[in-house]
Amino acid sequence: MKRTTRTRAARTTAATALLALALSGCGGSDGVRAGAAALVGDERLTTDRLAEVVDDALSTPGVGQEVTADVASFQRSVLTEFITVEVVEEAARRAGVELDQGAVDAQYAGLVEATGGPEELAAQAAAAGLSEERVRGIARNRALSEALGQALVPDDQVSDADVRAAYDAQADDFDQVRIAVLVQPTLAEAQALLPQAQGLDEAGFAALATERSSDQASAAQGGDLGLQPRSTFVEAGQPQLAEAAFGAAVGSTLVTEVPQGAAVVRVLERQTTTFEQAAPDLRAELVGPERQAAVEAAVRDAADDLDITVNPRFGRWDVDALDVVAEDDRELSREAGAEPATSEDPLQIPQ
User: Fold this and answer.
1) Domains of the chain
2) Model pTM above 0.70
3) CA 320 to CA 341: how far, in whole Å?
4) What angle do CA 152, 136, 139 make, to 5 degrees?
5) What contacts 180, CB < 8 A, 6 or more positions away?
């Protein structure tokens, strides 16, 4: 028996595509002047502040080669992120969105979890040239963008019937069982081993399966097949094993027929997500495309209305891509009908 593992695809909202820095602006100007790297309305990112961010990144242990090899590109990414945060702030202000610290903390915790823990987050941040302040800025802008999306397209735009249909369609994600099997050529041989297997703990059952199972693939894992949905067994032509696995309580040991003969089965674990537990995520998932479009439209409208200027020394503002590009890059990055461009996630969060 082949051991497989299914994991639910990570869900993200439209907000996760809109990353920005929490860089503070200072002063205003009628146009780019000496000392200004970029202007967004009355907010100004100074060349001194830009140099400070770049120097901090380059002096950080473990900074990635892509940062050190192309400082100009890194400068443009900082400018893009500064502009993006101001644009998102403006879009949120227009929508009457207010942000609380709890939402920011939750987003930061999500970054920690998505990258594999605090140490991995710190390592990825260093490789991307991101200070702790900038990572916190990413968390804040994620939270703000998500709140903007929820304000523009509330969760109740999706009916309860649609949520129920999505739950039923993804049943495999919400009910999985982990079993260990000890396969024997005949039903009689499996039944003869049942009393011994019932008296063993999990480690003892694994040892017995390794020693006595006639299925070498599962025996190599102590009989452990990992968490599986019902469909895995059915598609493998093992409906009786599915009935045994999902019909017994955790900790039970029983015998059932399998294509190779019969198996002593130990139910090790059951993971079930109820409809009530899954509904909030499913509702957000279903409303996601409409919410993403609404957020992108709101951000683009805000960007169009703001006076955004970049010092030519560092590049130019591409109004179509919503990105700072090299001054000599005249090719529009967003052709007619293409999806609006967004800032790349420097932390490589799984999508």
Assistant:
1) 14-152+276-325 (1.10.4030), 173-272 (3.10.50.40)
2) no
3) 8
4) 25
5) 202, 205, 206, 209, 218, 222, 223, 224, 225, 265, 266, 268
